[in-house]
Design a protein that fits this description.
Radius of gyration: 26 Å
Number of strands: 0
Mean pLDDT: 92
Strand content: under 5%
Structural class: mainly alpha
Length: 91
């Protein structure tokens, strides 16, 4: 048997209950799930998933602002009927 040690972690009680239920449905307990996470971390040399802020780059932000401006511009015609839209595009 592997040499084991105890490890104490503070966690929100609701999150713990939800995770215990989730992993229980997968047939494992929370201790096993944490061990899987830690082993995968060692295997990949870091978090076993992307950890990042999902922030768009400057070009994307500019495009989003432009789209917002166009969507609210009174001079831009909007369509609620696809047939009308396609007829306009064929012109």
């Amino acid at each position: 048997m592997a040499n084991t040690t105890n490890f104490s972690v503070r966690i929100d009680s609701d999150i713990k209950k939800q995770c215990e239920a989730l992993y229980g449905e997968l047939g494992i307990n929370l201790t096993t799930a944490i061990n899987v996470f830690l082993r995968q971390s060692l295997r990949v040399g870091g978090f076993p998933f992307d950890v990042r802020l999902d922030q768009p780059n400057k070009e994307t932000v500019a495009a989003m602002l432009e789209a917002e401006r166009i969507a609210h511009a009174p001079s831009v015609k909007g369509y609620t009927d696809l047939d009308e839209l396609f007829a306009e595009l064929k012109k």
